[in-house]
Specification:
The chain has 463 residues and is of the alpha/beta class. The chain folds into three domains: 36 residues, no CATH class; 228 residues, Rossmann fold (3-Layer(aba) Sandwich); 102 residues, Rossmann fold. It contains 20 helices and eleven strands. Strands 1-2-10-7-8-9-11 form a seven-stranded mixed beta sheet, with helices on both faces. The chain has a four-stranded parallel beta sheet with strand order 5-4-3-6, sandwiched between helices. Helix 9 links the parallel strand 7 and strand 8. Helix 11 crosses helix 14.
């Protein structure tokens, strides 16, 4: 039996929460103390439902580069990660355009963690049952969070690097039964692209106001679904010379050279060119060592005194970094430092990147680090890790994707994979043209009014 929808924001309201009424913003902010209050849907934005982007400008004593490294912080999104944004946007589009209602079908979220958590969370708030399809060897905190939000787990063999098995399970068990399931397919559906181009892209542009020259020289992000990289299209629309930099684990260098190994950076490096990756707008590709990301996380989490006493980071700044970064966040930061070095950027230049979540999902990853390390790291080890991971970020293993047909190579890789999952060669070929992406992005103009109309027509008791 279908039930009325629980309403949420439009793309425009996620981009600029000040478009919400003062009353609704007040209700949304009050709801933060009650995680499962559906009004938290209106807190899906980078701006804490206000007008200031949640960000961190990293201290130069840590980065060792003259450029400003600006990190968008996704930890204050409902459920603790910005991945809740594309999960919500995909479900909201289904409700607005396909008349999906709670009780109609079960929601499916293929993921390696954060998107699955977001799927379970949004589904619970909106009244849907959710199943998250993900590998069976991710951090235990991720499974616990999904179960906390009443999501069921359908686990496939392996780790982050085996997400292709998750994709195959999703298509065979769920996409093939559209009468029973609605799949929030983050790797292939364009609401993910639209959310990040419209919402994350604008947050990146706003985040650098008053910093350096106020412009963006580069944007770095590791592709998981590659949704976050869509922010690059928004950035290039304003600053055409900005470089968009994709990051991969050295241990699973699929885009770099077809590598297919295992790695420890949860949330990225999924052994494929995702369908929604606009490869012709990615300029550089860099490899990051997975162990460096875990060591860097440990420095941020348990090395505050080392940052202060041995690197000279101001105490208040070092304390502000505590608890804010997981491995993929450190990967993005290291990539931003490498980018600043590679491009020779100066003190007026800004490199923007993203911290998808925070440390609360990774204590078990730290425990595994201690096992490999023979115990908790000493102060000398933490100092060595801080200097090698951040200050010592190397300029090796970098590919200029704009040269020697590299973007075309990635486009062929995309076609080789996704035609296996029912997408036509013509459809994928169209993705080589920026007009394809601009047309899909422009659909927000028709989607937002429908989301608003549904909200006005089907008022729920929670609002």
């Amino acid at each position: 039996m279908s039930r009325p929808i629980i309403p949420g924001p439009t793309y425009a309201e996620m981009r600029n929460p000040m478009l919400l009424s003062a009353e609704l913003r007040e209700q949304a902010n009050a709801a933060r103390t009650t995680e499962l209050d559906p009004r938290n849907l209106f807190n899906i934005n980078w701006k804490n439902t206000g007008d200031e982007v949640e960000k961190i400008v990293l201290p130069k004593e840590l980065t060792g580069v003259a450029a400003n490294i600006v990190v968008l912080s996704g930890r204050t999104f409902p459920s603790g990660s910005m991945k809740v944004g594309p999960a919500y946007a995909t479900l909201a589009e289904h409700e607005a355009l396909e008349h999906l209602r709670p009780g109609d079908r079960t929601v499916i979220g293929p993921s390696t963690g954060n998107f699955g958590i977001g799927t379970a969370y949004v589904s619970l708030l909106k009244g849907y049952q959710a199943i998250v399809v993900m590998p069976d060897n991710m951090s235990k905190e991720r499974y616990e969070r999904i179960r906390k939000y009443k999501g069921e787990l359908d686990l496939t063999p392996g780790t982050e690097s085996d997400v292709i098995l998750t994709l195959e399970r999703t298509h065979s068990a769920y996409v093939s039964k559209p009468e029973q399931f609605v799949t929030l397919a983050q790797f292939e559906l364009l609401p993910n692209y639209r959310f990040h181009r419209h919402v994350t892209g604008k947050a990146a542009l706003d985040a650098v106001k008053g910093i350096g020259n106020g412009r963006i020289a580069a944007f770095t992000s590791a592709p998981g679904s590659a949704g976050t990289l869509a922010a690059g299209d928004a950035i290039k629309a304003i600053y055409p010379d900005a470089k968009i930099v994709a990051l991969e684990p050295r241990e699973c260098s699929t885009l770099y050279d077809g590598g297919q190994g295992q790695h420890r950076i949860e949330g990225i490096g999924d052994k494929m060119v995702t369908l929604i990756h606009n490869v012709y707008n990615s300029d550089l590709l860099m490899l990051i060592h997975d162990e460096e990301t875990v060591r860097g996380m440990e420095v941020m989490q348990n090395g505050t005194h080392i940052l202060v006493d041995r690197l000279g980071v101001p105490s208040a700044v070092a304390c502000h970094l505590y608890g804010r970064f997981g491995p993929s966040c450190i990967c993005n930061i290291v990539g931003a430092i490498k980018t600043a070095k590679y491009l020779g950027l100066g003190p007026e230049d800004n490199v923007v990147t993203v911290a998808t979540d925070s440390y609360d999902r990774y204590p078990s990853v730290s425990e595994l680090l201690y096992t490999r390390n023979g115990g908790r790291p000493s102060d000398d080890q933490l100092e060595m890790w801080a200097k090698s991971v951040f200050l010592g970020a190397s300029l090796g293993e970098i590919v200029d994707l704009t040269q020697n047909g590299q973007q075309a190579r990635l486009q062929r890789m995309k076609a080789d994979l996704w035609t296996r999952f029912g997408y036509s060669a013509d459809y994928i070929r169209n993705m080589a043209d920026q007009d394809f992406w601009d047309t899909e992005y422009a659909r927000i103009r028709e989607i937002d009014p429908v989301i608003a109309q549904v909200r006005a027509r089907e008022t729920a008791t929670t609002i």
